[in-house]
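Structure (tokenized):
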């Protein structure tokens, strides 16, 4: 596809003008960042894996009735998505204690939480994406109470689908974050899962060994990030079972 007008460039993806009104082309980069982009590197093949894995998850969600912005994959690094108004919040779903919640609440890493816990962070890199309460969200007009109720329902449905999918291939879904956008049909608003779902946005642990198969590999210098993502793709059937981890993965169409 010929390059079109650049709309936005983030840490891991680029948005271009789509071929039709109301669409974007989303390009997945090989850039890896952590700690609010204080740590950076380029991991060859990462964008290819995340493009294919995000497609796999988005198509799966659509098959169980969860609306998403995904339309189709265009090539190894690009997908066609529906244009939507992104709500400026990260929606985090936690099944086990890991990351910031351990520091905030003194929880042991890996502890099973009494139920899935949903948290919201305000999307602003300059502020470090701070944790916010529902009261902040409504008071500042980022989302209505009805939006919040719908966002929680969407997040829990994503959690049910992703947890079951990962459990079936021997992986524990520790936590994940999603973004949600508004799509307008005339005056009618729908909320859809947007951005991406990939090992960049999830914590994934091997059920038997506890091995990390997500971006914590990069955050904590635990090995090769492409190898970890390749293992996730292989288990899900996105990669052929006989392919060895590689910086340039061979993907199944």
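Design, position by position:
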């Amino acid at each position: 596809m010929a390059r079109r007008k650049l709309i936005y460039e983030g840490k891991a993806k680029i948005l271009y003008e789509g071929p039709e009104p109301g669409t974007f082309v989303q390009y997945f980069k090989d850039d890896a960042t952590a700690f609010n982009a204080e740590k950076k590197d380029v991991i060859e093949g990462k964008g290819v894996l995340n493009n294919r894995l995000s497609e796999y998850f988005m198509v799966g969600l659509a098959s169980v009735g969860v609306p998403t912005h995904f339309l189709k994959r265009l090539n190894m690094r690009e997908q066609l998505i529906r244009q939507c108004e992104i709500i400026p919040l990260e929606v985090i779903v936690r099944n086990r204690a890991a990351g910031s919640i351990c520091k905030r609440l003194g929880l042991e890493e890996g502890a099973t939480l009494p139920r899935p816990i949903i948290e919201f962070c305000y999307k602003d890199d300059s502020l470090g994406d701070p944790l916010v309460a529902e009261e902040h969200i409504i008071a500042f007009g980022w989302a209505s109470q009805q939006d919040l109720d719908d966002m929680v329902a969407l997040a829990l449905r994503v959690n049910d689908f992703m947890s079951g999918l990962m459990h079936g291939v021997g992986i524990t879904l520790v936590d994940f974050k999603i973004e949600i956008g508004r799509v307008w049909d005339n005056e009618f608003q729908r909320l859809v899962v947007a951005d991406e779902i990939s090992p960049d946005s999830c914590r994934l642990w091997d059920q038997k060994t506890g091995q990390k198969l997500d971006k914590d590999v990069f955050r904590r210098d635990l090995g090769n990030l492409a190898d970890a993502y390749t293992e996730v793709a292989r288990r899900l059937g996105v990669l052929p079972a006989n392919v060895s981890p590689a910086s340039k993965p061979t993907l199944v169409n």
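Reviewer-requested clarification: The first helix runs from residue 46 to 63. The two ends are 18 Å apart (CA to CA).
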